[in-house]
From TrEMBL:
PROSITE patterns named in the record: RESPONSE_REGULATORY
Source organism of this protein record: Anoxybacillus suryakundensis
Extent of the signal sequence: none
UniProt-listed Pfam families: Response_reg
Name recorded for this polypeptide: Response regulator receiver domain
Length: 124
């Protein structure tokens, strides 16, 4: 079982992902904006952080940059989930420090498969 933070401002999508990952046995925390995500990251240790790109207060990109500047959080795996799937957007996300990028829309099964690969150290 992994400890995962999901930062997503769309409540319906957040609920769907949380339900899907909890069904797989993971412990999920939720944040509805970038500021809440940063506060939770500072207070908790996560195996994986799932971030929406376009969120209020801080974007997913800004959250990544802040996390990568936290000495005790540099090891945390980060996956960006975004409808902004142009090559330039993906490159910007990876350069900011994300480990993985997944374009929206995605199927719950595809998300679970990618997360399981990441958590088991496989190439996602």
């Amino acid at each position: 079982m992994a400890k995962i933070l999901l930062a997503e401002d769309e409540e319906v999508l957040r609920m769907l992902v949380v339900d899907t990952l909890e069904d797989e046995g993971h412990d999920i925390d939720e944040a509805c904006d970038g500021e809440e995500a940063i506060e939770m990251i500072q207070q908790n240790d996560y195996d994986l952080i799932l971030l929406d790109y376009m969120m209020p207060i801080y974007t997913g990109l800004e959250v990544i940059q802040q996390v990568r500047n936290m000495p005790d959080k540099k090891h945390v795996k980060i996956m960006m989930l975004s409808a902004k799937s142009q090559q330039a957007d993906q490159q910007r996300v990876l350069e900011a420090g994300a480990d993985y990028f997944m374009a929206k829309p995605y199927s719950p099964l595809e998300l679970v498969q990618r997360i399981e690969a990441i958590l088991h150290g496989e190439d996602a």
